[in-house]
Each structure stands twice: as C-alpha cells, then as structure tokens.
Amino acid sequence: MDISTKGRKGNFFDGLKNRYISSDSIIDREMLLRLAFAIAGKPETARRTSAKELFSKDSFESVATTFQDYKRLFLSYRCYSYLERLQKQFYSDPNNRFGVLNYGNALRYGKLAVVYIANSKFQDDFNVSNVDIISQKVVDEVLNHWLEFEEYAKKQKRNHDYFRIIVDPTTDQETLEAEF
Length: 180
Hints:
mainly alpha; two-stranded antiparallel ribbon; 6% strand; disordered N terminus
C-alpha cells in the first residue's frame, strides 16, 4: 500500500504509513455516526442527511447514548460490512448489478434500514469470536424477507411518493418503479 504523506494527516496516518495497522482495522467516523442513527431507529436520517448536519451538536447529541452500547454498534458495523460484501458480488452481473433480483433494493438503498432491523433482532450472546457469524445470520434472516417487505411498502399510501407507475404502451401492463 502506497500512502502519500503530502497533505495527509489524522489519528491513524502514521500507523497506516508505517504499516502498524491496516486500513481494514479503521472504522470511518462518518459511517459509525450513520450506524448510530440507524440503530437509534432513524435509518432514513442516517442515509439521507449530510455529514455536516449529522455532526452538528444537536444532531450528534440526539444519538450520543447509542455510543455507550459499543458492542451493539460494532455488531451493526459488521452487519453493514457484510452487506457491502454482498453488494460487491453483484457488480459484474449487468442483469442483476445490485442484487435486485435476490434482495430488492436492500443492497443499493436499504443497507442502513437492514442494519436497523437486524439490530432489533440481536441478543446479548455475542462476542469477538462469533460477531461475524451472528451478524451474517441476522442479516441473511432480514434479507430473506426483504422482497416481501418491499411489496408491502409499495402498497402503503404513505409511500406513494417513492414509487411511480410505468405503463407499457404495447401491453397496457402497469409496473411500479422505485424512486428511492
């Protein structure tokens, strides 16, 4: 790994430069804050709000207590990382680029919502040795029901703004297209 020193600084720069730590060992603080919002029951805020607004004093303080449960926050991070790895598996498939056929829009737009739901299913019986197994199991359980969830969401009137009806001019068949 070639790390340029020009214009670079930060808490972990020397460790990365001298290879004391790998970049895989660092959790981006913005992502950590987005995960805190997600597990605090605000996945939509976590996804759509700018970093500047998330780090504002009032916004940050609204989820500050989430950081006290560092184990749950870390487990949520492992869930998110697993979702990122799943998404990468579909990059080379032009007909299913974001795994839409398998998981709907969960991997493209709903990762933080999946983390929120998965977090609600966690038990306290996890530790460093089983965190990846548990996070993957819970995420897979949520993803197994995601397509059903999206169908349910499409039928809710309050979600009408997120979908538009497309009519095929030759068959007059209507389909809903997501506008996430």
